[in-house]
Structure to design on (577 residues):
C-alpha cells in the first residue's frame, strides 16, 4: 500500500477514535465541562496530562531544535521538565485543595479582587493564544506533508476535529481523548526511534544507542556527528549552546517558571477526586513524559546524522540535484525544505560557509517527521509518525482552548459581568467561547510566526512573567495584598511584551516594533524568548514593594492561605472557602 493511502487510513482511524470518545464523554454539566466532574483516576489523569503537556513543540519541534542547535537545544528539554517538577511540587496540590475550576478564580478569591481576576484572565489569554499558534503550526506542517494538502487546508481540518470533541465534551471529552492521543503519540515517537537506533548502532534502546558505536565500527555516533558537522563549518554538536551562558541560564529559567504557570496544565489537577490524587497523577505524568523526553536527544542526534549522510558528498562528489532522494522531493513540495542553486551547476552543497553558492533552507520542524523517510523506514511507521504529530498538536490545542473558553465564560461572564446566569446558560456560554477561541487560533495559525517551539517559548515567557508569580505569592506569602498582586502581574507581563515586541515585532512580525530599531541590543545578551524570567523577577519585586505600602490582606484571607498549605481535610472532594 502506498504511503499516502496508508497515512489517510491511519490518521482517519485516529480521528474517528477521538470523535467517538467525544460523543461518548459528552459533558452535561459545567463541572464536567470545566473539570470532568472531578472524578478522573490519577493514572488516567497522568496520561492525559502528559498528552496535554507534550505539544507539537515537544513532539515535532524540540528534537528538531536539538538536532540543529546541538547541546544548546537542550534548554527546552531542561526547562520544560524542570518546570513540570515545580508545578507538581509547589502549585498543583495546593490549588487542588482549594477546589475551584480555574486559575483566575483562585487568583480572584485569594487576592479578594475582581480586578485581579480580570487581569489574570487577560494574562492567561495572551499566553494561551500565543501557545496555540505553535500547535496550529504543527498541525499545518504534519498535514501539508503527509496528507499532501496545503498548509491552510490542514489547519481547517485540525480546527474542525478540535471543535467537535472540545466543544462537545469539554474537559470530560478532552481528558479521555487525550488518553488516546498519548497512546498514539508515544508509539509514533518511540517506534521510529527504536528502528533508527537499531539500524545505526545495533541497540534497540534509543537512549543507549545515543552513546553507542556505529554498526560495524569503533566510532561513537556522537563523535562521528561532531566530525561531520565541523567538516562543513558548523560548531561541534556536543558542546555548542545558545548565545551566552547568561542567555542559556535565563532561557532555561523562563521555560521552567513559564511551564509551572501554564493554566491548561494546572487545570488538569482539578479533575482528580482529592489532593493526594493530584500528587499521584503528577508522578504518573512525569513517568509518561519521561518516556518521550529521554528519547528526544537520541532522535535529534540520529536525525541530524541521517541528514548529514544524505547531503554530505560521497567519495568527493556532491549530490546531484536531479538525483535527490524521494524524501527530499516530498518535503520540497511543502516549502519547508528548499534549495537555491545560484551557480546553476546542478549540485547540492550543504555548508555553514556563506560563500557556497547553494542555499539550503531546512525548517527545524521537519526533522522528526522527515527522519523516518530519510532512514527509509516502512510506510506504516511513517504514517504512524504523521498521526502522532497531529495527536500531539491537537491534544495541547484542546487543553489551551478549554483554558481560554473557561476563563471567558466562568471568570469573566459568570464571575464578573453576569453572576446571576444559571448553569445551562453558563455551559452554553462556555461552548460559544470555545468556538470563538478555535476560530481565533485558526486565524492566527494561518500566518505562524516562525518555528513552533520558538513561538511556544514566547508563550512560556508570558506565563512566567504573570501567572506563576501570582500563584506562588498567593499560596506561600499571605501578606501580599490585592494591589501588590495586580501591580505585579501588570508590570511583569508588560515589560516582557514590550521587550518581545521591540525585538520581534507586533505578533512577532519583523519590522513592526514600535520603539524604533534597536538591532541586537539585548538586555545583558538575553534574547526575547528568554525574557520571561526577567519579567517574573519584576513581578515579584513590584508585588512585594506595593504590598509594603498598602493595607495587608484581611484576616480571613490570611487564614485561607494558611489553610491551603496545611494538609488537614485534604481528602475532601472539591469545595470552596
Amino acid at each position: 500500500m502506498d504511503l499516502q493511502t496508508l497515512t489517510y487510513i491511519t490518521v482517519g482511524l485516529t480521528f474517528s477514535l477521538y470523535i467517538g470518545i467525544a460523543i461518548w464523554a459528552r459533558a452535561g454539566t459545567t463541572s464536567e465541562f470545566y473539570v470532568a466532574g472531578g472524578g478522573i483516576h490519577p493514572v488516567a489523569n497522568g496520561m492525559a496530562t502528559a498528552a496535554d503537556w507534550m505539544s507539537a513543540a515537544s513532539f515535532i519541534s524540540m528534537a528538531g531544535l536539538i538536532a540543529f542547535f546541538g547541546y544548546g537545544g537542550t534548554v527546552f528539554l531542561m526547562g520544560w521538565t524542570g518546570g513540570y517538577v515545580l508545578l507538581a511540587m509547589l502549585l498543583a496540590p495546593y490549588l487542588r485543595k482549594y477546589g475551584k475550576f480555574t486559575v483566575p478564580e483562585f487568583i480572584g478569591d485569594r487576592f479578594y479582587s475582581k480586578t485581579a481576576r480580570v487581569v489574570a484572565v487577560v494574562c492567561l489569554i495572551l499566553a494561551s493564544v500565543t501557545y496555540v499558534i505553535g500547535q496550529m503550526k504543527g498541525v499545518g506542517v504534519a498535514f501539508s506533508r503527509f496528507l499532501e494538502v496545503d498548509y491552510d487546508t490542514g489547519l481547517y481540518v485540525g480546527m474542525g476535529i478540535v471543535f467537535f470533541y472540545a466543544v462537545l465534551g469539554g474537559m470530560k471529552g478532552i481528558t479521555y481523548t487525550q488518553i488516546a492521543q498519548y497512546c498514539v503519540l508515544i508509539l509514533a515517537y518511540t517506534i521510529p526511534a527504536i528502528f533508527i537506533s537499531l539500524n545505526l548502532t545495533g541497540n534497540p534502546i534509543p537512549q543507549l544507542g545515543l552513546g553507542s558505536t556505529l554498526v560495524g565500527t569503533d566510532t561513537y555516533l556522537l563523535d562521528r556527528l561532531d566530525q561531520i558537522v565541523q567538516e562543513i563549518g558548523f560548531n561541534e554538536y556536543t558542546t555548542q549552546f545558545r548565545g551566552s551562558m547568561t542567555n542559556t541560564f535565563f532561557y532555561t529559567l523562563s521555560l521552567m517558571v513559564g511551564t509551572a504557570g501554564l493554566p491548561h496544565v494546572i487545570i488538569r489537577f482539578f479533575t482528580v477526586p482529592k489532593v493526594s490524587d493530584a500528587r499521584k497523577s503528577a508522578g504518573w505524568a512525569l513517568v509518561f513524559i519521561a518516556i518521550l523526553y529521554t528519547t528526544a536527544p537520541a532522535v535529534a542526534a540520529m536525525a541530524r546524522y541521517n541528514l548529514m549522510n544524505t547531503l554530505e558528498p560521497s567519495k568527493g562528489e556532491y549530490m546531484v540535484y536531479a538525483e535527490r532522494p524521494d524524501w527530499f522531493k516530498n518535503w520540497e513540495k511543502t516549502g519547508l525544505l528548499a534549495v537555491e542553486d545560484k551557480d546553476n551547476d546542478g549540485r547540492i552543497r550543504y555548508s555553514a560557509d556563506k560563500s557556497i553558492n547553494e542555499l539550503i533552507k531546512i525548517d527545524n520542524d521537519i526533522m522528526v517527521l522527515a527522519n523516518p523517510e530519510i532512514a527509509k523506514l516502512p510506510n506504516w511507521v511513517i504514517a504512524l509518525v504523521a498521526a502522532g504529530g497531529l495527536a500531539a498538536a491537537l491534544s495541547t490545542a484542546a487543553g489551551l482552548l478549554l483554558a481560554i473558553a473557561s476563563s471567558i465564560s466562568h471568570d469573566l461572564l459568570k464571575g464578573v459581568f453576569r453572576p446571576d446566569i444559571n448553569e445551562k446558560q453558563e455551559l452554553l456560554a462556555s461552548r460559544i467561547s470555545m468556538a470563538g477561541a478555535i476560530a481565533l487560533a485558526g486565524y492566527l495559525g494561518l500566518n505562524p510566526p516562525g518555528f513552533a517551539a520558538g513561538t511556544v517559548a514566547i508563550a512560556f515567557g508570558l506565563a512566567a512573567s504573570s501567572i506563576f508569580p501570582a500563584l506562588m505569592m498567593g499560596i506561600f506569602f499571605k501578606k501580599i495584598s490585592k494591589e501588590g498582586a495586580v501591580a505585579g502581574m501588570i508590570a511583569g507581563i508588560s515589560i516582557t511584551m514590550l521587550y518581545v515586541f521591540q525585538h520581534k515585532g507586533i505578533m512577532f512580525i519583523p519590522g513592526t516594533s514600535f520603539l524604533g530599531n534597536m538591532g541586537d541590543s539585548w538586555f545583558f545578551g538575553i534574547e526575547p524568548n528568554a525574557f520571561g524570567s526577567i519579567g517574573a523577577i519584576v513581578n515579584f519585586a513590584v508585588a512585594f514593594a506595593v504590598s509594603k505600602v498598602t493595607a495587608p490582606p484581611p484576616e480571613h484571607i490570611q487564614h485561607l492561605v494558611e489553610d491551603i498549605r496545611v494538609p488537614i481535610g485534604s481528602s475532601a472532594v472539591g469545595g470552596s472557602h
